[in-house]
Design a protein that fits this description.
Shape: globular
Mean pLDDT: 91
Radius of gyration: 26 Å
Helix content: 40-55%
Strand content: 5-15%
CATH topology of the largest domain: Rossmann fold
Largest sheet: 8 strands, mixed
Distance between the termini: 36 Å
CATH class of the largest domain: Alpha Beta
Length: about 650
């Protein structure tokens, strides 16, 4: 039955099983190592749907991955693919749509009729269901999946796959095929840098680093500081020694994972003592960098010039603080194998197709929430899996830098040989979701909870707590008159469109104050809603206008949080933070991006991300039932922000055109 799509290579057994299940109209969940070829399954489903005249949806956990997939698939399926995220809407009526999981969840809760012709959906990185902040979106998408749709779930890491699939089979009538592949096509070899030596197994590490050393745990309050990298154990463990080893051993290109932006930049500058590329490569990489930078209009930026000095040596760094277009240039150079050593944060490991021969982990501890702890086995596997390029490398290499003064041998052993952490439900139904469900089910919406993965996994005490959270949110919505006389009020209809920020913005709307703000003030309000402050941040000087707005919004936040605390809601609704407003005022006054950055104590990438999040909220407000004169203000606010480097759709079209060229 696999005759519909031909391949010029032999399919692996797990790929064949997945495709056969698809042909039998069965949903499929595939857990297979990074780089094993899960994308082949997704492409088969896409081709099958398009050949048969049906629509298909591809969801990704982050916008960067959505954008990358759009660019890849646009070449494979010209004129048939579109993308819809909070930032971008290109060809939204295409039969093949790429979207963030949030967009898909929102649309199915609204009973979007446009999905009638879409017969399949692909959930890439489906283990994101375990994400504390956003995992509930995946769970809700699976619970409320339209009955006519089948799905493919792809992941490198679902240790409790049987449990996960058992839940899915319980809530869906259609058959679901579970496929687990543990074989990796490119074998990995693990090495350790410890006390200045390169070691090749855990036994040797224990003998060299831990002999006579008592086992210990630092506890949850362990904090990494700059001195952490300079203590006695690490002084002989300099990263330069490892770089020399990689260069002499011909184990480049290499992705070097570090867990802070500053650390990535610091290491890249230390690597400038080396030269990782030949004279011919140097000429080519500089020419390519200059050409791409000029095409994208970033050649004059200070950060671009700093990176140019690194790129001249075959080195780069990559993290969320960089300008998106500068990240694009770096990714293109790395994919063309002109950058041999890239220092990056762990987000580079999440599905972005940038494999290398070698992966280095700068440390085996990172921050989870507020505390530092040893790496989760699952996170380690995700990053290590980026080494060894299928079809290019016969083997891959993973190097871990060990500091025995900060990591016990038991912790190290758990990372390497322990059982991966199971994915857990993060079900935490939002106010907006409750409002959407209330329109369909009324008070019976609480009967939805037993269909959740949370209910399936947990025991009575945690079940009761989660159910009380849902009931309490419903009571709050009724108390604040989002629901009245068994229906949604005007305020309720507004709130169900504003995911994540429902109560603060809707209380402002319900009071009539939101409509009284000018377009610039409306933009300030939305930016302050999405902004997440840094710890130990410096406060800018507020204008009288901003002080008045802060006073109004602080009163609303206090009122909402007081009610939520009374009902024991966790987490509380977000507060407003006005730190970035001074820069936004300048931006809306048509100042250049370089000018506004002098008023924003943040990296370029952060500022762009928050501005784009602000635009997303404004678009959600516009999509809500609001008066036409207010809608004009929203349009004006969007227009004032969405220009130049902030215009994500324009940028995506620009780089997609470059791909085609």
């Amino acid at each position: 039955m696999i005759h519909q799509v031909s391949y010029n290579f032999k399919l692996d057994v797990f790929q064949q099983k997945a495709i056969e299940a698809v042909e039998n109209d069965c949903s499929v969940v595939v857990s297979a190592p990074t780089g094993s070829g899960k994308t082949v399954i997704a492409e088969y489903v896409i081709k099958k749907c398009l050949n048969q005249g049906y629509g298909v949806i591809y969801t990704a956990p982050i916008k960067a991955l959505s954008n990358q997939k759009f660019r890849e698939f646009k070449i494979l399926f010209p004129d048939q693919v579109g993308i819809i995220t909070g930032d971008v809407s290109i060809n939204p009526s295409a039969p093949f749509l790429i979207m963030t999981t949030e967009i898909f969840r929102n649309r199915i809760l609204e009973n979007d009729s446009s999905f009638v012709k879409h017969s399949w959906i692909i959930f890439d990185e489906i283990h994101y269901l375990d994400d504390i902040e956003r995992g509930t979106v995946w769970e809700e998408s699976l619970i409320f999946l339209p009955k006519h749709m089948r799905f493919v779930g792809l992941s490198a890491t679902i240790p409790n796959l049987t449990e996960f699939c058992s839940w899915l089979k319980e809530i869906h009538r259609n058959e679901i095929t579970m496929i687990k592949e543990e074989n990796r096509p490119v074998p990995l070899h693990h090495y350790f840098q410890c006390r200045g030596k390169i070691l090749n197994n855990l036994f040797t590490v224990k003998r060299v680093a831990y002999r006579g050393k008592r086992s210990f745990h630092h506890g949850r309050n362990y904090v990494i500081s700059n001195s952490h990298y300079l203590n006695k154990s690490f002084q002989s463990n300099k990263p330069e020694r490892l770089m020399t080893h990689l260069l002499k051993s011909d184990r480049l290109p290499c992705i070097y994972f570090a867990f802070s932006r500053k650390r990535c930049e610091f290491l890249a500058l230390r690597a400038l003592d080396f030269d990782f590329i030949t004279p011919d490569e140097k000429t080519l990489v500089l020419k390519t960098f200059d050409t791409l930078s000029l095409q994208l209009g970033i050649e004059a930026s200070e950060r671009a010039q700093t990176l140019r000095k690194c790129i001249e040596k075959g080195v780069a760094y990559h993290h969320a603080g960089l300008h998106p277009l500068l990240k694009e240039v770096i990714e293109q150079l790395f994919s063309r194998r002109l950058i041999k050593l890239i220092f990056t944060t762990e987000t580079f490991a999440l599905g972005i197709n940038m494999p290398a021969r070698t992966v280095v982990l700068d440390d085996l501890k990172k921050k989870y929430g507020r505390f530092y702890r040893h790496l989760k086995r699952r996170d380690f596997s995700q990053m290590a899996g980026r080494s060894g390029r299928r079809g290019i490398d016969k083997e891959g290499f993973v190097y871990s830098r060990i500091n025995p003064d900060e990591l016990s041998f038991q912790e190290l052993k758990q990372i390497y040989t322990g059982y991966p952490e199971p994915i857990l439900s993060r079900f935490n139904i939002s106010y907006a979701t409750i409002l959407s469900l209330y329109e369909i089910y009324g008070d019976q919406l609480i009967d939805i909870y037993p269909r959740s993965f949370h209910f399936f996994q947990q025991k009575n005490k945690k079940r009761s707590h989660q159910l009380e959270q849902i009931k309490s949110r419903l009571k709050i919505l009724k108390q604040l008159e989002y629901i009245k006389n068994n229906g949604l009020t005007e305020k309720g209809l507004f709130a169900k469109k504003i995911y994540g920020y429902e109560l603060p913005l809707s209380e402002l709307f319900g009071s009539g104050l939101l409509e009284t703000f000018t377009a610039p003030q409306l933009a300030m309000i939305c930016l302050s809603m999405v902004y997440e402050p840094r710890p130990r941040r410096r406060f800018p000087k507020w204008s009288r206008e901003v002080k008045n707005m802060r006073s109004i919004t602080n009163q609303i936040s206090k009122h909402i949080n007081l009610i939520e605390t009374r009902f024991r809601i966790n987490p509380l609704s977000k507060k407003w933070y006005y730190d970035l407003v001074p820069s936004l005022v300048l931006w809306m006054d048509n100042k250049s991006f370089d000018e506004i950055m002098t008023f924003a104590d943040h990296d370029e990438g952060e500022v762009i991300r928050f501005y784009r999040m602000c635009l997303q909220i404004l678009r959600e407000i516009k999509d809500a039932p609001i008066p036409s004169n207010f809608e004009c203000k929203v349009d004006e606010a969007i227009e004032m922000i969405n220009r130049g480097v902030i215009n994500a759709e324009q940028q995506l079209k620009q780089v997609a055109t470059m791909d085609e060229a």
